[in-house]
Structure formats: structure tokens, C-alpha cells
Design brief:
By secondary structure, this protein is of the alpha/beta class. It is about 40% helix and about 15% strand. The chain has a four-stranded parallel beta sheet, sandwiched between helices. Helix 14 links the parallel strand 11 and strand 12. It is globular. It starts with a helix and ends with a helix. The structure holds 1,3-dihydroxyacetonephosphate (13P) and iron/sulfur cluster. The site of iron/sulfur cluster has 14 residues, from helix 6. 1,3-dihydroxyacetonephosphate (13P) binds next to helix 4.
Length: about 325
Amino acid sequence: MVKEEWIKKGFVDEPVDDTLDLKKEIRRMCKEKGAIILAHYYTVGDIQDIADFVGDSLALARKAAETDAKIMVMCGVHFMAETCKLLSPDKTVLCPDLNAGCSLADSCKAEDLKVYKEEHPGYQVISYVNTTAAVKALTDCVVTSGNAEKVINAFPKDAKLIFGPDYNLGNYINSVTGRNMLLWNGGCHVHEKFSVEEIIKLKKENPDALVMAHLECKAPVLAVADIKGSTATMLKYAQSHPETKKYIVATEAGILHEMQRTCPDVTFIPVPPEVSEGSLGCSCNECNYMKLNSLKKIYNTLKYGWPSIEVDPAIAKEAVKPIEKMLSLS
Ligand code: 13P
Ligand code: SF4
């Protein structure tokens, strides 16, 4: 039975026996219940280590569309779990903590996008996957950072396009495709903080290092980056260039776990964020939402079968179309 207290908190807050080997128990429960664990690269290493599949948001969406498992535990953030549910409506999608939101998804409310669309007749909407189902339902095609350039290039050169909500990604795609998409002014609170001054300083100290940056970073950061792309793009680059022994990495620090695991003799230096006035020198290049996932919450979500993701059927019917369009174009 789902307790009132859990609903208020957004996760199952029940004590877990300290003597349990949580990793073993989670794997045992997955087998027993026919569940798989999907994890994003930004979750903590312990979760990535027990996951059936670890990937970027594009690979996670693909996996959700093709899996036979009855239950998926999506260890990432809420929009990723919602995408899994949209693609596999008959499956149970568990989300260990419903508070795992996304500042970028929050920067575009469906009601605001609806008004903006009405103000721009004749425009099609391209939305980044980091959006709610309600925003996707108003969208013509979804993209991820792993396929944005390819998918947008599939639209005629003179197509009138609105891109949202990530301004930096849209601005970058405009610059490489020569388009003039109208850009929503949203952003990610982690990626907007990476400091170009820190990258230049690190580059001086490590002249042999290449700079990697996620496409959600600001234009000055992308301008000094040698490798720009999604989390998977950066990871694959390091894995396929064994001659490069050092990277300066401008994305959420969780990716370093998989980079270091698969390239053990390479040095990955995480870029610290800008230290703004009043931030007390905080150097949090971590996504607080991703870090809400924990082994204890995964154990409890599997044990109690809650929280699970539900999407209003009328919204789901519309929201799945632009995701399927993306998958067919990428
Ligand atoms: P990826 O598509 O690279 O996994 O990025 C998702 C994300 O939320 C980055 O902040
Ligand atoms: Fe959202 Fe930013 Fe966290 Fe990615 S890192 S999930 S964009 S808040």
C-alpha cells in the first residue's frame, strides 16, 4: 500500500536493513520481478555499476523502446522516466525519487510554449528531450544532444523552426547548420556555470589535454572545446582515441566514472563552475537532481513497486509522436 507520507515525499522512505548487500539484493529482485535498471551517466558510480544499461538520453530512449522487460527502473531524472513510459506505455516505469527534476525542463512550461506557438503561426517546434510530456505534446519533433544536428538537418533549409528550451544547444545548432531557428531562453543550471576562465587556466597547466564540452554549455565554453557533443559523444571519443592521454571535461562530473572505468590509463580533469558572489566557493559541477537516485531508493522502489510514472493518456497520445519522429530520423 502506498503511504500518504511517501506521496508527500515523492519516494519510499522506509528503513532498509543495514546488513543487506544492497547491490546483490537489487539484482536478485530484478531477476525475480523481470525488471531492468536503466541509468544515465550522471548517476553515482554505484548505480552505474549495477545497471543493466548505462547511456545518454538518446540511448536510454532507444533502450526503453526495444526492451522486453516488464518493469524498467529509470535512474536519471523525471523527463527520462516519462520518455520511457511514453515509448512503452504497457510497461511499469519506476522512478526512484519523483523529486529528480531538471532545471532545463522547468525552464519551458507547456502553457508558455502554447502562447509562443500562437504568436508564431507557420513555425514548427523542435524540442530538446529535456522537456515534460506536456511540452512534447506541443512539439513537432524531439531531439537530444546526440542527434540534434542530424535531425534538424532533415528539415528543409527554409523551414520555420522554434527550438527550445536550451538556448545554448539551439544557438550551437544554428551556428553549425546556418539556420535561424527562434530560440527559447532556457538553460541547465549545471552546464551554464562552467567557467571558460577555468578551462583556459587548466589548458595552460595541461597543454597536452583536449577539452570536451557538452552542448548545453555556453558559447564561450564551446568555442574553446576540441570535442563538443552529448555525454555519449565525449565518452566514445575518449574510448576511440587511445593516443590522447588527458582531457579537460566540461559536463556533469558523473560521466567521469564511465570514462575512467573504460579508459583507465587516461586522466580526466573535471572543470569547476564559475564562483559567483555569494556562492561561498561552492564547486558543484554535479546535478543535484541526478544525485537524488541512490541504491536504497532503487531497492525500495523495486520492493514496493512505487513511485511509478503515469502520463495523462490524451497528452501521451500526442507526446509520443515527436519522440517517434526523432527515433525514425536519427
Ligand atoms: P545527454 O543527452 O548527453 O545524456 O544529456 C542529458 C542531460 O541532461 C545533460 O545535462
Ligand atoms: Fe537537467 Fe542539467 Fe541535470 Fe541534465 S544536468 S538533468 S539538463 S538539470
